[in-house]
Amino acid sequence: MAYSWFKAFHIIGIVVWFAGLFYLVRLFIYHVEANQEPEPARTILKNQYQIMEKRLYHIITTPGMLVTVAMAIGLVSTEPEVLKEGWLHFKLLFVAILLGYHHYCGRLMKKLAADECRWSGQQLRALNEAPTVMLVVIVLLAVFKNNLPTDIAAWAIFGMIILMAVTIQLYAKKRRLDKEKLMAQIGQVPQEQS
Predict the structure, then answer these.
(1) For residues 129 and 133, what is the distance between their CA atoms, to the nearest angstrom?
(2) Alpha-carbon distance 89 to 55, whole Å?
(3) CB atoms within 10 A of CB 57
(4) What residues form the annotated binding site?
(5) Nearest partner of 79 among 177, 169, 4, judged by Cα
(6) Is the pLDDT of residue 78 over 90?
(7) DSSP 61
(8) What are the b/e assignments for 95-125, b being 16+ CB within 10 Å?
(9) Cis peptide before 149, with omega less than 30 degrees from 0?
């Protein structure tokens, strides 16, 4: 019975943790792009994003991470023989990378607050894809364990994930270019009227 409780709360922790990670970097993007706004909007937006980032990181994302890790330890304690499985070693490697990503986001949040972040909105959009890739790998390892499929279907799924990431990046670039074009047109209108 303990295993089922640990597993249920492990899944809940994962959902909360990833929801926080996905939204946190999205807030970073908005925070960085607020620099393009005129005053007083720039200061108001940056202050609001800073509050939202701190609350998300400390109240949702970090507790989600802690619940995930604590319940994973509980799961392993009920079935310690799983530690001998190769798939779990790979899964733990990706979880360790994800933990590093989580803490790196905390550092980025502090840099944004101090106005020292040098990441562009486009770079942050690319960074925002990292947890998606890790989530896919971790879930596939947890579901398939040592029988991870390597056939054409698996490669097709992997290809779709890459295609989604590229599409998101291209769409973001299109939006940025459209916005720049609109701003250029707006800037030309007053000059033409004079």
Answers:
(1) 7
(2) 33
(3) 19
(4) 10, 91
(5) 4
(6) yes
(7) I
(8) bebbeeebeebbebbeebbeeebebebeebb
(9) no
Q: Which ranges in the chain belong to alpha helices (H)?
A: 2-33, 41-55, 62-78, 86-113, 121-127, 130-144, 152-193
Contact between residue 105 and residue 58 where contact means Cβ atoms under 8 Å apart: no
The torsion region of residue 145 among left (phi > 0), alpha (psi -120 to 50) and beta comes to left
Amino acid 66: pLDDT = 98
**Helix, strand, or coil (residue 187):** helix
Going by the DSSP 8-state scheme, the letter that residue 83 receives in this structure is G
Q: What is the pLDDT of residues 31-48, one digit of tens each?
A: 999 998 999 999 999 999
Q: Which of 137, 119, 122 is nearest to 168 (CA)?
A: 122
DSSP state of 36: G
Which residues are annotated as part of the binding site for heme? Answer: 10, 91
Boundaries of every domain in the chain: 2-148
Give residue 192's pLDDT.
47
